[in-house]
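Run folding on both entries below.
>entry_1
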Amino acid sequence: MSPPAGEMGSTSTNNIPRWLQLASSADHIDSSLSLLQARERTRNNARKATRPQVLPSRVRQVLSPSASNELSKYYSISVGANPDNLWGNRYSNIEPYDRTRVIVGGAVGALADGSVNSTVASLDGRYFNGSWVRELFGGKWWIATQAPLPQTSHVFLSALLQPIHRPMTLDSATSPPIPSRVRTVVQLTQNFESGRRKADAYFPSKPGQSFIVPPERGCTAPSLQVTLLESRTLKESRCIQSKLKVSIPILQSNQDRAQSVIFTHMLYAAWPDHGVPEEEDKESLLSFLRLVDETNKNTSSQDAVSDPDPPIMVNCSAGIGRTGSFVAISSLFRAFGLFNMSSLSASLPRPLIKYPHTLPQSPLGPLPKEFEDDPVAQEVDSLREQRPGMVQREEQLVLIYELLVQAYSRRGAC
């Protein structure tokens, strides 16, 4: 799908770098869409071979036996597709890759006082439909996940209550990543959209109120209490920002006081499912992007901070379309200095920071040479390597190019 004629060129090109002018042309975007779709079809065929209900013969029509075995192992979703874990998937066709899935440690795991449960790093931890994803160009880690279901709210909150360990990468082989704790949750979907449920509430709507959240069936972890401390509406960012506390009630924690953590929940209210924000809402999305980045770096509510910019947990409904788009935009804004407009330079041909060496090489090989100067296509393809279907819709890919153009065109006024 191409942008409407003239849409990408409606702003002044004086401030827009040459690579972006070329990459945001209708012909290039069409080529990018075709290439990315073809590569995702190959991944999807490989994923199908690891679903219990799908016969491998259906995939062998597309892949040779040797290629099928190699790709299916790399793109396996066998854990999420296991019948024992289907309860944890909001949608029946969206599961995390085995190699990038977030594993939530045992009954409670490591808590705010620093004590560590030995099950935290265990591969036998609780199932959670979430994926570790790292920005290709910005370098930041995220947890991309679906909107919690009633039966998955406990494991979702448990991932906030305990410290988390980012995956080992090539650049951390000699220095293991320090434990971190999620303190910002971004939600890109309303609970109801067009009359259909897209997310379930897991915290109350009035400050001072609490929900008691029980664990999933078969889990012996204690129930959790989540309390809304405060909430405010930020009109410029179309955002409802809430501060919440999640804790183990004293009677269940075997402690003299309740163990708890505080996190910030940020709901962006102007992004429809299977689509993109309206033209008049794109400025609010730019504002929201910067607000999320600033909020996650704010350590004022933390007693002790070992990571000044910890991973952010982000979800829409399925955790792929809007979620992938938001991560991709954030990565490119971070890499090109677009979060801090005063430092922006239109003359930069490439991102300020580049981390491709820290991510595994795709078994599909690199993108063709004509996409070497298109970081948007590279970023989206990299995200799809880490969670299926990221940046799900054609118009969402176009949105990424548009917002980059818009951000550069606005720099003269900053």
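>entry_2
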Amino acid sequence: MESDRKNSNYSFSVFNFIDTQISRLEGFMLAIGVILMAANTIIGVISRFIFNHSIAFTEELNSMFIAIVTFAGISYAARQGRHIRMSAIFDTFPDWLRKALMIGISAVTAAFMFFLSYYAIEYISTLMSRGRIMPALGVPIWWAYAWVPVGFFITGVEYVLTVIKNLREKDIYLSIDVLDGYGDIDADIEV
């Protein structure tokens, strides 16, 4: 019995390690993506208004950055428990029902994310088979959407981990690290 618990704790700690590494990668991608998107936009504006010449690839490059930031951001938000919640009714339920709902909501959301990931892969496969390229950058158009299935899949994994955490712990968790409740908002914001 004790060895089963140790093996379970070990496997969960491996998931925590992997989750931490993915979180770092996503945070890096979000920061770099936003900075590059802003710099690209500023360069495009300066080029257009000062030099009276538009740089052709800025729009295509920004569409790639938007996809990266959006789909890295959904899994990052899920990990931080910052997804949109309609909690007015949820908060009035007793703890046992809230916990059951959180497990159910997380499981359904995970399944939906995996479903979307599958269809995003199908879409990218279609784009790859057509061989379309972005006119200004000259790169395959599927590059702009490559992060989409990865973002959906990682978000699905985050929700699966939330289900596991809620099944293992007494408290109610919004994500693997975030407890349900209303803490001090200023304390939650890292500066």
